[in-house]
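Reopening: structure tokens for the 4-fluoro-L-phenylalanine complex, inputs below.
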Amino acid sequence: METSVLPSAPRAHWSSRWAFVLATAGSAIGLGNIWKFPYMTGTNGGSAFVLVYLACITLIGVPLLMAETLLGRRGQGNPYDAMTTVAREAGASGFWRVIGLIGIVGALLILSFYSVVAGWILEYATRAAGGFSGITRAAAEAGFAALLADPARLVAWHTVFMALTVVVVAGGVTSGIERANRIMMPGLFALIMLLIVYGTLTADMPAALRFMFHFDPAAVTREVVFSAMGHSFFTLSLGMGAIMTYGSYLERHTSIARTCFYVALADTGIALLAGLAIFAIVFAQGLAPAAGPGLILQTLPLAFAQMPGGQIVGILFFVLVVFAAWTSSISLLEPFVSLLIERFGVRRAVAAWASGTGVWLLGVAVCLSFNAWSGVRLFELGIFDLLDALTTKILMPVSGLLIAVFVAWVMQRGHVREEIALPHSGFRLWQGTLRYVSPLAIVAIFLHVTGLAG
Ligand code: PFF
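Re-run output (same inputs, fresh job):
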């Protein structure tokens, strides 16, 4: 059977369990791991963030990843229709469709800034081709600032990346991207390992390890916990319809638990390795770990400049990161496109180009928020930070909470049992976590941050 990520009638299914693991890992592994995780760790006090993030992945992320996959497979449709189906089957109110809606809208909002950041990476791939030789720390920092100050360049790269995303989604069949994934993901992993070796030999790996893993309970602030929870959702692509849509193409007999475990393991592994590689360089160069969103772009050029063969490694690295971002961005556009096709009968190509254009426009505002519109602020945040905070800190956890409550409390146990074919004790453990631990943790973190409690 054709291996397709994208809906067609009759509904396509993955050719194998590995195809699902690969596509879902492709969605999960992206800028969140290589760009966002290191800079969030840097601005949130290092190990405090890392350890809370790992706890969130285990207690909230993995159980929810399984739950969202389950909803997709059971609902067999785009997030809105899938939720309609499963709510009806559970005899529950149509309210639960809101999960599909939040996801679809949230995914489009994420894509608007995700594409802009992917554009930065494209710019750096071309800069790497020119070689970074002789670059100094100050020049690396200035180089990133110059990019942010140049709206035309930002918009141009953002346009290129959105076009790449739309072309694949409009094409309908992703065997190409899936095949590319199969080559690119191991390639990315190999290059990150190379950076780790480089970091160990020439940079300050002990400092990186200390920064990321030496736990200091005093550093765990509200903001750190909130950010770590938000990031655990972001990195696993949770609550945004992407996992639900991909789950809807999963064959009945495939073990959801096992596949989700592999996805989470690969995702977390890549993030931790990328973090170690970056911080080893940061500390060796005397850079500030809290530099913010530009962190990897201010750090890696320094490493590539000194490394033998650094020019080739640099180009390859940034190109592979673009691929990682690409496989994620497709999964961000697909939920809305599948809704337009399945519910409104819009042709796939039209749906993809129209929604891509809308997202592109919002992305242009994001590009301007770094320069001409830097004064535009709401809740003290610029457009870029606002979209990021709204999606990762609010929409994703809210959607995750609703998913946990729906699957663990509203769905009929027998139906859930049919989807999660774990041995009894494993099932109980998963269900108990989803029932009590995940929702309570999300609510507690919300209350704590908004100051309503403690
Ligand atoms: N998980 C992706 C990353 O870490 O880069 C980002 C993402 C993709 C978030 C798809 C949400 C989503 F639905």
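The chain has one domain: 30-449. The domain at 30-449 is CATH 1.10.4160 (Hydantoin permease). Marking as resolved unless the reporter disagrees.
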